[in-house]
Design a protein that fits this description.
2 copies of one chain form a homodimer. The first copy, chain A, is α/β, with parallel strands linked by helices. Chain A has helices at 12-19, 23-30, 38-51, 57-64, 78-83, 85-99, 113-124, 144-150, 174-187, 203-216, 232-245, 257-269, 303-318, and strands at 70-74, 105-109, 130-134, 154-157, 168-172, 193-197, 225-227, 251-254, 279-284, 297-300, 325-328, 331-333. Chain A binds a DNA duplex through helix 2 and helix 4.
DNA sequence: CTGAAAGCGCTTACAG
DNA sequence: CTGAAAGCGCTTACAG
């Protein structure tokens, strides 16, 4: 009445028997083939093919105490994940880069506190060798101390505020990027340049605003600074605010493209033209910069590159190298809005 | 010169020693606490807290030959993943449902053939206990035979064409949904109802067209059937086609909301009004149905529910229950376009 | 270059 | 209810 006994998966013992060598030798060819004679190696290879042997990942992990996997920890709501194409680009880039080393990506979504606790448990529990940290809001990073304490290698996307020394990171050069955008707007002859800054608990939001202030120098007018949450609607709202406080604004540097798109809507709704009356510069070079009229002049964040470097640094950290930090330049992309 | 020896993680032996019991007893409380006296149980619990013990997942997996994780295999390009909010909803739903059982989701993206091979290796290699299959294009599912043969439990989102009997699935009722939409358009007094069907190598594309044909019965006019790829642009193109072939169309049932949005653009570009001149019915109830003017009347696919049921069925299959299939009704959502 | 052996940290019949 | 023991499938010094 029972099913025929499921044929057991072949183990390293079966391979050894078929190849006529010891288990140790099989293991050696499995783990790189060093210190194995060509003959033995060939016999083992043939035996593996013949038996259809596949290494048991759990046994290997137990013996080596390496998980051979890496987590992608996203501390954002799911809405944001799929709203913000930056996350998508990072996820793809990381997954692709990891695939080259044959390392699977375990996606951990931790939008709320319960999920974060679970994710921390998982990460510090030995399931993965390292973690790619992706989240903008630093306020949400209560788990950083634990991960850092547990000694699990981690690389953050963007500066992990408060943990710059303990956790490696890869960040776009927000400061220089913001400066460059302001200079560009100035080069267009604009002088009353406002800004819509992103959330001030994010390194990007903070640093881009700092870059703006730095470049504006004595021309900074506090009433020309407004804040948003990186969402479309917040950009629209902030722009209205700015225009009420100072109708003479002739340019605005917006902390990301999505808010810039919202800002353009607000500007146009007052009968002003972009870029003739008000030039708009964004940040990211996300699809939002292209979807709509006019297209948005922006500072491109090289997310493919960033994700690759994150993987490279993480793998290095897992191999025992000291954690490193890296800043990657942004690039001005001129389009219609400025 | 070397770091102080990293304190080794406590093992079950340490707990046993501290608790004054045997390893077996510790394991018993770890695995459910059956057949353990209250005293022993309390001692073990205390010892676990004292030592900070955490179970080693690899050792446990080796001993039980269960991975305690599940894969989410997405055979779509990354573009589609983040274009199509349905995937996002599924991913979130599955992740959340799985979290309740404390089972992590391993995200496997396999857009091209190389990635699919890698993913198949991974899945059949024993890394996961089961897999959630998400992809629309059945043409891309060359790995289905392998997974099925390897005996790894799998549940598909949508009918796995050609594997209906071997792989469980959860699907929205595309046939009845399409019928209902056609009936609804008819109830509006429309009689020259065209359709833009999705890809015919997807169960949704196929079945919704079948539902349309069935409900239209003798009123089917082949020139009123066009095809798209579920993308915005394809809907626009297909609608232009339809209008050229038959300018008198007074309604159109579109295979998904994204194409419906494109179709509306096409209709409006010819000077016709939606819904006055042509009523448009979509499918999915995705954000595309809301983003734009007019909002789209559509058949809602309950993706949260679908993902939950997928997880439930998969967990059951992992527990040895026979694979099951499940069809979930869609729901008409009336908005402005029809 | 190769084999024998110990060890990775757990679980699970088996006796008792 | 509990302990001793075998076993899960690999890797890795250690001798040779």
């Amino acid at each position: 009445m029972t099913l025929p006994p499921a044929k057991k998966r072949p183990t390293i013992n079966d391979v050894a028997r078929v190849a006529g060598v010891s288990r140790g030798t099989v293991s050696r060819v499995l783990t790189g083939g060093h210190w194995v004679s060509p003959d033995a190696s060939a016999a083992v290879t043939a035996a593996i093919a013949e038996t259809g042997y596949r290494v048991n990942p759990h046994a290997r992990s137990l013996a080596t105490s390496k998980a051979n996997s890496v987590a992608f920890l996203l501390t954002e709501s799911y809405e944001r994940l799929f709203d913000d194409p930056n996350f998508a680009t990072l996820l793809r880039g990381a997954s692709t880069a990891l695939a080259k080393s044959d390392i699977p990506l375990v996606l951990l979504m931790a939008g709320n506190e319960a999920e974060q606790r679970r994710a921390t448990e998982f990460i510090t529990g030995g399931h993965v060798d390292g973690v790619l940290l992706v989240s903008s809001h630093q306020g949400k990073q209560d788990f950083l101390p634990e991960i850092s304490k547990a000694g699990v290698p981690a690389i953050s996307c963007g500066i992990p505020l408060g943990f710059e020394r303990k956790i490696g990171y890869v960040s776009a050069d927000d400061f220089a990027g913001a400066q460059e955008m302001v200079r560009y707007l100035q080069s267009l002859g604009r002088s009353r340049i406002a800004t819509i800054a992103g959330p001030q608990d994010t390194s990007g939001g903070l640093t881009r605003l700092r870059g703006y202030r730095d470049e504006m120098g004595d021309d900074v007018v506090e009433s020309r600074i407004a804040y948003g949450d990186y969402g479309l609607a917040s950009g629209e709202r902030a722009m209205h605010e700015l225009l009420e406080r100072d109708p003479d604004i002739d340019a605005v540097f917006v902390g990301n493209d999505l808010m810039a798109r919202g800002a353009i809507t607000a500007i146009q709704s007052t009968g002003r033209r972009v870029p003739e009356d008000i030039a708009v510069g964004g940040f990211d070079d996300s699809p939002a910069a292209l979807d709509g009229t006019p297209t948005i002049t922006t500072m491109r964040q090289p997310f493919e590159r960033i994700s690759q470097e994150m993987v490279r640094l993480l793998l290095a950290a897992i191999d025992g190298e000291a954690t490193a930090a890296m800043t990657i330049p942004t690039q001005l992309v001129r389009r219609e809005s400025a």
